[in-house]
Amino acid sequence: MKTRKILLGLAAIALVSGAIIAADHIDAPEVKGGTSDITDFYAFQGENTDNLVFVANVQGLITPENSSSAKFDPNVMIEFNIDTNDDKIEDYVIQAIPSGTNMSIYGPAVPNETGSMSTILDDMYMSSVKITPYKNDAFTTTTNASAVTGVKAFAGLRDDPFFMDFAQYTAIVGGTAPGGFNNPGADTFAGTNVLSVVVEVPKSMIGGTGTINTWVTTKRKQ
Amino acid sequence: MIRKITTIGLSLIVAAVSFNCSNNDDDKEMETPMTATYALEDQMGRPAVNTVFVSANSKDNFNTTIPSQQGAAYASMFKTNLEALSPAFNVSTDKNALMQTSTAFTNLLATDVLNVSLDGKTTFYDGTNVLTGRALADDVITVELLLIFGGEDFTENPALSDDHVDANDKEFLTSFPYLASPW
Fold first, then answer.
1. Residues A46-101: pLDDT tens digits?
2. Model confidence over B121-177: pLDDT tens digits?
3. Pick from B51, B112, B119: which is nearest to A20 by CB?
4. A147 in a structural domain
5. Count of structural domains, chain A
6. Interface contact flag, B38 A221, Cβ < 8 Å
7. Looking at the partner chain, which of A88, A158, A169 has a beta carbon nearest the beta carbon of B163?
8. A180-219, pLDDT tens digit by residue?
9. What residues make up the domain containing A88?
10. Do A181 and B55 touch (CB under 8 A)?
């Protein structure tokens, strides 16, 4: 809790200075510290190189003491967007929505609509996995509808994979560190957790080959 | 306060829906109605873009501008902010190590999507591959600092172009789910 307060204080100072940096943690006033605040997004080839892995992290800077009470918001959809023809409009989506103690994963599939409003994909594209409780590393199997066989998912707390000397950057931008960064620097995000959704999918479901554009969104139930 | 009132309102709606369901034994479907609509609140493609390049009073708007409209709406602001932030871009012919002028660099970044290859190595930058994905161990902040402050050959402004935090505080896993266990 203390760390969070210090960080929020730094962020406030940085906001006044006009430019702060972090992956996407506390990036804007409307979402800062809320249940839809995206902290990070990753997309990389899986251990099985026929697969691609998407990672979305939300609700950053969760201390160990606050971790057992941290939870996904059942009214917030986390959506991975995949554009296969470089028009910056999603051709496929993967949607993650909490459902009781499980995370429902829909897709990859062609979205019902593109843009800022979404509805949930049909159940024929649904996978489901139990949300892993804090400090329980017994991952459970993902169940799939037949149209999405091969999709694997994880939902739960993980160490925040982001690393950066955010505090020193803030000082630099704030004009109080004329010497620049320290060497070595100090990882401001060390020792904190995030809520993670990890979805691994066969590349054949998202275009198969070539280059995709991808981004993650959080959307709130209206 | 508004948030609290909304939460109470939602609880009442959920209660009402649940009551209806329990009174109808034939209705086995008690999941979220298919017509429920979800509205955009936050989005992200490449790391740190909103925090670095978007002016303070536009950060929420950037989060709710869809990528196909971001370039037209934000390229100009990004260029102005980059040139104000970095001495490596204070002359119009300045470039970064990707040989991008401030215009080319910010045109790329203003559409905030992550480019990912489906055909090979996925990395933000590894010395050879550029923007083919984002792996967990990629030192994306140092890459971005180098591209912002490092000039044409990564040698300008050395005190600003590397935060000297090069790796995560826990080792990543080689297998699913790849991220390290929580603290």
1. 999 999 999 999 999 999 999 999 999 999 999 999 999 999 999 999 999 999 99
2. 999 999 999 999 999 999 999 999 999 999 999 999 999 999 999 999 999 999 999
3. B51
4. yes
5. 1
6. yes
7. A169
8. 999 999 999 999 999 999 999 999 999 999 999 999 999 9
9. 37-162+191-220
10. no
Residues of B in contact with A186 (CB under 8 A): 165
Chain A contact present for B8, CB below 8 A: no
Among the listed residues A87, A147, A86, the one whose alpha carbon sits nearest the alpha carbon of residue A121: A147
The verdict on residue A201 lying in a domain is yes
Could you state, in order of their start, the residue ranges of all structural domains in chain B?
49-153
* Angle, CA A70 vertex, CA A123 and CA A167 arms, to 5°: 120
The answer to whether residue B131 neighbours chain A at the CB level (below 8 Å) is no
Query: Which residue of chain A comes nearest to B117, CA vs CA?
Result: A211
The answer to whether A209 and A160 are in contact (CB under 8 A) is no
B114 touching A (Cβ < 8 Å): yes
Write out the DSSP string of B108-137: HHHS--EEEESSS---SB-SS-BSS-B-TT
**Half-sphere exposure of residue B130, counting CA atoms within 13 Å on the CB side?**
7
Please tell me whether the interface predicted TM-score (ipTM) of this complex is above 0.85.
yes
Residue A180 placed within a domain: no
